[in-house]
Amino acid sequence: MGSPVGPGGPGGRGGPGSPVKPPSPGSAPGGGRPAGLAASAPTTSQDGSHDTRGSLSEPLLTTTSSRKGGKQSGNARTPRKAHLVLRRVEPWSAMKFSFVVSLVCFVILFVAVAVLYGVLSAVGVFDSIVGTVNQLTNPDGKATNAIDASAWFDPVRILGFTALVGAINVVLITALATLGAVIYNLASDVVGGVEVTFSEAE
What we know:
The structure is a single chain. The chain has about 200 residues and is mostly helical. The protein has helices spanning about 55-75, 90-125, 125-135, 155-190; strands at about 45, 50, 80-85, 195-200. The strands form two sheets. A two-stranded antiparallel sheet has the order 1-2. A two-stranded antiparallel sheet has the order 3-4. Helix 2 runs antiparallel to helix 4.
């Protein structure tokens, strides 16, 4: 009969001849969870549901607070600056822009003169001026070559002069702006243009 193999025999567990299995890298001594996650285990409530709240929520809170702190520190950075040089101004673009601006100014001028004329005429300023001029130039009313001051304040004449002045301003402003762009381009080829520094808003 063969003798039974004891715990310390060649075929038994833990014997001198049996290989020893090394522990896994993520396991703690004793076959449990890692040290960072072994602080709390899921518990079972009275209704049979598992409560998994434990130490895993603490790293999440720490990560969230660190992200918020990173955003706040990122908003406090200094604004960037860009140093640029204006080399060329396109004459065609300058002409279009100046024409539109001068046309808008012409409309504003015409409307302002029309409104002002209406207000002064309603108050009676023009009638007072005409009466004063007639008294000074023709006190007895018998002079044939007296000055007709009422023709000075004719609305057609005033608005016509306003339109003429506005049209001349449109032509002059457009031409001068285009000529200024050409002169700037010629000067920029010599001196290198105008240096401009841009900065981000804080």
